[in-house]
Amino acid sequence: MSFPIKPSLRKYFIMGSQNCDRDPAEILEAAAKAGITAFQYREKGPASLTSNAKLELGKQLRAICKQYQIPFIVNDDVELVELLDADGIHVGQDDQSVEELRLAFPTKIIGLSVSNMDEVERSPLDLVDYIGAGPIFSTTTKTDAKAAVGLEWIQTLRTQFPTLPIVGIGGINTMNASSVLQAGADGVSFISVVTQAEDIAVAIEEI
Ligand code: 3NM
């Protein structure tokens, strides 16, 4: 299935088991029912799963995305993209190069994180489907996150690249999500506002 990229970025939920204090499949199912527009399986950092356990959880989450017709994007794991027939892959600046990924996956969604102009200038933006810009606000979810770059970063990118699909990330919650869109992003991506929500449906509705 192919997905139009900008609408898919609108409410882009990211999660791995390390972000969850209950069954990740239940959390994803609730989020899918509530109207997320894309999902990224990001099994990364302290206490994350590896090898077979990572694959098995991936199969469950992939199936939920198929059921709800939501793009399933894998964070930085080419083998898992292939094994799960993911719709796309998201990488950071220090991960596998976008040039290699585009050769391996001519038709899949490729997303790339960019935090500053140096990174933008070094990146083959013509080969990516979207960029993740952040961290917009400060976050404790990603232990090695850089300092918050603020809404100005979205404004700068939007001015320089009027048509590039952009999703904001980092510290986005129900109170500040609309400011990210107003600054020029096509959508918002988020982890803890959903994984730690008392009521996932309400959180997604408010976003
Ligand atoms: N990447 P929360 S910030 C996975 O800046 C991730 O590239 C970031 O989690 C970046 O929505 C981040 O809980 C964590 O702040 C986002």
TrEMBL record:
Chain positions recorded as Mg(2+) binding sites: D76, D95
Claim: Membrane is one of the keywords in the record: no
Pfam families per the UniProt record, alphabetical: TMP-TENI
Cofactor field: Mg(2+)
Keyword field: Magnesium, Metal-binding, Thiamine biosynthesis, Transferase
GO molecular function: magnesium ion binding; thiamine-phosphate diphosphorylase activity
Pathway: Cofactor biosynthesis; thiamine diphosphate biosynthesis; thiamine phosphate from 4-amino-2-methyl-5-diphosphomethylpyrimidine and 4-methyl-5-(2-phosphoethyl)-thiazole: step 1/1
GO CC, one annotated term: cytoplasm
Annotated residues for binding of 4-amino-2-methyl-5-(diphosphooxymethyl)pyrimidine: Q40, Y41, R42, E43, K44, N75, S113, K142
InterPro entries assigned to the protein according to its UniProt record, in alphabetical order: Aldolase_TIM (IPR013785), ThiamineP_synth_sf (IPR036206), ThiamineP_synth_TenI (IPR022998), TMP_synthase (IPR034291)
Cofactor note: Binds 1 Mg(2+) ion per subunit.
Domain Thiamine phosphate synthase/TenI positions: 12-193
Gene Ontology biological process terms in this record: thiamine biosynthetic process; thiamine diphosphate biosynthetic process
Secretion signal span: none
Function: Condenses 4-methyl-5-(beta-hydroxyethyl)thiazole monophosphate (THZ-P) and 2-methyl-4-amino-5-hydroxymethyl pyrimidine pyrophosphate (HMP-PP) to form thiamine monophosphate (TMP).
PANTHER family named in the record: THIAMINE-PHOSPHATE PYROPHOSPHORYLASE (PTHR20857), THIAMINE-PHOSPHATE SYNTHASE (PTHR20857:SF15)
Name the UniProt record assigns to this protein: Thiamine-phosphate synthase
Lineage: Bacteria, Bacillati, Bacillota, Bacilli, Bacillales
Encoding gene, per UniProt annotation: thiE
